[in-house]
């Protein structure tokens, strides 16, 4: 009598089996739609772990979006997909980081600065970097003009006055102090400076007169303590020049008119 199945018993078992099938179906559906699973992929598919927690957002709160660090900002999906995403993140780090270093890194070498030009050094005018011409003047009478031209490539200075030495002279002629200019004569390459020599007294008051046929012109340095450099040897007229003990010279002048006014 215990083996007799009643309709109520069969219905109860049928409902229980149907409920079991429904639960299994729902479980499979939840597993297949990808919404109830969260992956914590670390870069390889086999290391990915799953959780039956609720749906997670597409971006993790702690994920970085900085392109220079190379992280993708998402955790990845499931299984092997999470592993491939993690690899892509590390690859992106190498690529973007390298490009940043090559394009704007602090170690990038700046173009070499042009080397500065050498500063010009001014020199003293003397026989080796100038040309000196001696020319007798008709006015003022008994005068001779010395013209010194800078033949070098650098600016030179004519300090003080010329130390002239004629043939047979016993001493260097004195300078006319009143002719001293306010500034040292400066000659750029190709420019000229001037001085005049009063050879003899116009009224015949001079003594010890004689005719000289050669001339040496010596140049002073800044200290005016003596001659510097090479002497100049300008030519004199074939008949020579007459001079006496009244001979004297002017300071070097920037302009010719200033030289012949004494």
Describe this structure in words.
With 262 residues, the chain is of the alpha+beta class. It has helices at residues 7-32, 79-104, 256-259, and strands at 123-124, 130-137, 143-150, 156-166, 185-187, 192-198, 210-212, 215-220, 227-232, 241-243, 248-249. Strands 1, 4, 5, 8 and 9 form a five-stranded mixed beta sheet that branches.
Helix and strand arrangement:
Layout: H1 7-32, H2 79-104, E1 123-124, E2 130-137, E3 143-150, E4 156-166, E5 185-187, E6 192-198, E7 210-212, E8 215-220, E9 227-232, E10 241-243, E11 248-249, H3 256-259
Parallel strand pairs: 1-4
Antiparallel strand pairs: 2-3, 3-6, 4-5, 4-8, 6-11, 7-10, 8-9
Total count of helical runs of at least 4 residues: 3
* Structure summary, number of beta strands: 11
* Percentage of residues assigned to helices: 10-25%
- Spatial separation of the terminal alpha carbons: 165 Å
What characteristics describe this protein?
alpha+beta, 23% strand, 2 domains, 262 residues, 3 helices, 5-stranded mixed sheet
């Amino acid at each position: 009598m215990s083996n007799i199945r009643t309709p109520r018993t069969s219905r109860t078992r049928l409902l229980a089996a149907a409920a079991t099938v429904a639960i299994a179906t729902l479980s499979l559906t939840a597993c297949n739609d990808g919404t109830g699973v969260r992956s914590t992929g670390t870069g390889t598919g086999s290391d990915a772990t799953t959780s039956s927690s609720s749906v997670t957002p597409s971006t993790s709160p702690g994920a970085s979006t900085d392109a220079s660090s190379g992280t993708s900002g998402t955790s990845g999906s499931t299984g092997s997909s999470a592993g491939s995403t993690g690899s892509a993140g590390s690859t992106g780090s190498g690529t973007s980081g390298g490009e940043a270093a090559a394009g704007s890194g602090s170690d990038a070498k700046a173009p070499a600065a042009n080397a500065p030009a050498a500063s010009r050094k001014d020199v003293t005018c003397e026989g080796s970097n100038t040309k000196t011409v001696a020319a007798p003047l008709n006015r003022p009478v008994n005068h001779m003009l010395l013209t010194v031209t800078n033949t070098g490539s650098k600016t030179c200075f004519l300090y003080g006055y010329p130390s002239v030495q004629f043939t047979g002279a016993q001493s260097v002629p004195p300078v006319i102090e009143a002719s001293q200019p306010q500034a040292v004569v400066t000659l750029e390459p190709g420019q000229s400076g001037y001085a005049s020599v009063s050879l003899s007294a116009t009224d015949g008051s001079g003594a010890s007169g004689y005719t000289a046929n050669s001339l040496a012109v010596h140049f002073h340095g800044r200290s005016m303590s003596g001659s510097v450099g090479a002497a100049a040897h300008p030519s004199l007229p074939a008949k020579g020049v007459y001079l006496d003990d009244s001979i004297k010279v002017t300071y070097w002048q920037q302009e010719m008119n200033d030289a012949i006014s004494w």
